Amino acid sequence: xxxxxxxxxxxxxxxxxxxxxxxxxxxxxxxxxxxxxxxxxxxxxxxxxxxxxxxxxxxxxxxxxxxxxxxxxxxxxxxxxxxxxxxxxxxxxxxxxxxxxxxxxxxxxxxxxxxxxxxxxxxxxxxxxxxxxxxxxxxxxxxxxxxxxxxxxxxxxxxxxxxxxxxxxxxxxxxxxxxxxxxxxxxxxxxxxxxxxxxxxxxxxxxxxxxxxxxxxxxxxxxxxxxxxxxxxxxxxxxxxxxxxxxxxxxxxxxxxxxxxxxxxxxxxxxxxxxxxxxxxxxxxxxxxxxxxxxxxxxxxxxxxxxxxxxxxxxxxxxxxxxxxxxxxxxxxxxxxxxxxxxxxxxxxxxxxxxxxxxxxxxxxxxxxxxxxxxxxxxxxxxxxxxxxxxxxxxxxxxxxxxxxxxxxxxxxxxxxxxxxxxxxxxxxxxxxxxxxxxxxxxxxxxxxxxxxxxxxxxxxxxxxxxxxxxxxxxxxxxxxxxxxxxxxxxxxxxxxxxxxxxxxxxx
Length: 508
Hints:
508 residues, alpha+beta, N Utilization Substance Protein A, Chain:P, domain 4, CATH 2.40.50.140, 4-stranded mixed β-sheet
């Protein structure tokens, strides 16, 4: 029996991968559970193993007393002396117990405890082993399918390939070989279960690392992988050595390496492209296999870009249902809009016109359009009530309003307040420019209202013409004797013939 126990311990350690200490602890827990079932408590149960595990002994530790209160943990001195001559009251005495004397229920309890303990120990051992395999490739065989989920035989444990982690291209049959990525490990009632995936971008990374040694030894690094499982995968790679082409190394001689990856993915399309720190170059590469004429950064802060492609490359750049440009957006982390060269020309014209409108709107140096107005009612923004009051008192044009304001007659108009007069005067000063153009220097009755659209050259030409006219015309004076008109070139008055002399005062 002893040898059978030692053999059982050895077999458990080999088959279940459980340590020897765990097996010993399990046997001890089993005996104590049976002991507790029989005596009601296992606090005084002592289990002792031989060094070679050839035998195990069970003891009941009791305290020697004079008058037993609890027979499970106490023993009378008289009974103790029959077992040992040297014992005294207060001493503890270990009494050998034969496990064969345990009743059936006690044995069954111990057996259940042992089974549960060994099962949990086995799960913990497997968990420690497979927890390190998360992110690695594992190979198993198709076992069964339920509700779209495929259960995979992995040897020691069972794997599950959920429907959401299966490529739409792939169909499996019983005993098919399945290669997948371990994404999670969890305990179940029956043991340990590994959650597998064939749609994760990291699955492609693991596959390509197996096929391309330069990636495994870090000569080439994968910058980013984006994937629409079953349809297309884009991989951006970069080289740590100038003499190694990252794309060529991944493709392999005559495409041998990339074809092996495509076969593993059941014919899924794969684009391998070179990563570049320049976003314009990287976006252009990300749109492969389409040929891109140019990339324009629309808004760098919002990461918006415009890709210009030839007409025959538009559908290829966008891809079926927008797949190619969608993956390019995710790969480059930019919002990419695609236009043909003709569409861009139209777009550029519209954009240029919009810029011109904005520039005109905010340009303070634009020359003003001039048109003539005479009446107060034509002033922009004039209050209609004020116009009615002025019209009723024959103050209709701007010049008459200015004259009435100067001589103070406006304040006599009933219903016209001082604030009304000031508001009209302010409106005139802001929008009206008076221009002199007669020989005597009197103000014109017409006025010029400025608006933001005319050519400045016309205004300058007009000003120059008025200046010349003023210089050409002679200044007219009155004779100090008779009041007849005289000019500066006369030496005597043509009316009273008095002598004339013109003196000029220096301007300070």
